[in-house]
TrEMBL record:
Stretches assigned to coiled coil: none
InterPro entries: NADAR, YbiA-like_sf
Protein name: NADAR domain-containing protein
CDD domains (alphabetical): NADAR (cd15457)
Gene3D superfamilies per the UniProt record, alphabetical: YbiA-like
Domain NADAR: 214-362
Amino acid sequence: MEEPYDQKTSEQIRAFYKQHSRRPAQFKIGDDGSLNTYNKEGVLESTISLKTFRPITTEERTEMDTQRLTKLSALDLLYEQERKKLREAYLNYKATGEVLPVIQANQNVLTAELRRVDTRSAVRGVKTIPVPTTNQILFDEPYEQRKLFGTHNLLGKDDIISEGIFVLERRPFTGSQFYGRYEKAGTPLPAVVPQESGVVGTALLTTGVTARVFFSAEDSQNGYLSPMWPVDFVYKETRYSSAFQAYEAERMAEKGQKEVRDKILKTRSARTIAVHTRKVTEPAKSPQALWLPILTAVYNQHPELVEKLVSTGQDTLVYADPAVGGGGVGVGSDSKKILDPANWRSDNVVGKVLEGLRASMREKAPVAEPPPPEAKESVITVEEQEKAKTGAIIRAVTGKIKIRK
């Protein structure tokens, strides 16, 4: 569910109400609902402006339904295309014995189906209905107070239901999306459906679908989705500092570029990695076969990123890598063409993989975080990199100073 406030603001609000009950003279609620903090001299020190919740308009709900159906139509088509590819891969396997394309095609079908399920019912949960008494169901027995499915139930003693009836609930939208919107106080009610998304960090594609466009890890809204987002994790017994680094290291190994791969592991900078690999322009043999296990390893080892990924709801995830074949759409985030999928020059592999992970991880029950796998090889650590920078500066300075005898 969308949260009206970020974590920092939520903590400040909780802290305010705790202090308000103890020191109401210094922690006052304004006439407009704002939370005002004063010092002992009565001087205003800080203010927290609370948002207001308004009901959703008919136009907004219609737009939501239209976007959902449009996305479902596209995903249905994608699902059938992936099934066709799976059949072709299986026929090829029967003729050649090559099994890897079948495994990959089967994974693609699973990912497409999970994305369809996620779009059809974004919210799923189990609700318990208490066991009714007999007279609540059988009106010809008004005095029978025993449980309908208890020891004396109509189904027999072997069908005792004591804990209630469990019902699977499915909803197409979260409560905060379906019932209303959180807005800044004083925001006028929209008269028509806005042509751009009202959620920070999202954009409206020409197809009418809400999307999150991401590329740089420095993006304040969607940077955490970027493969360049700094996060240490272990993949194939090697510790990397980002998914982008792991992908490029694997691509260099695939192309026989061992020296370039070694250089990649000596830096934590995405820009430096891009410089080292720019001369090797040939894309990976199968970008999806690389991105899927790499990003899966990242999210399996970092539950905090799973929460952020799941919080993107049903938004289409668009990796705005301008390079063709690198996992993005082949169009930069600073280009207006990015909002029209017809202009995309690549398959948005990273975006699709993240959507598949989002759908599958939303289905999983929370489990204890397993210890990270051991690494036999590692990228340079932050401490080692800082030490190397300091040494380089010292060498540069001392090299310019002539020592007189």
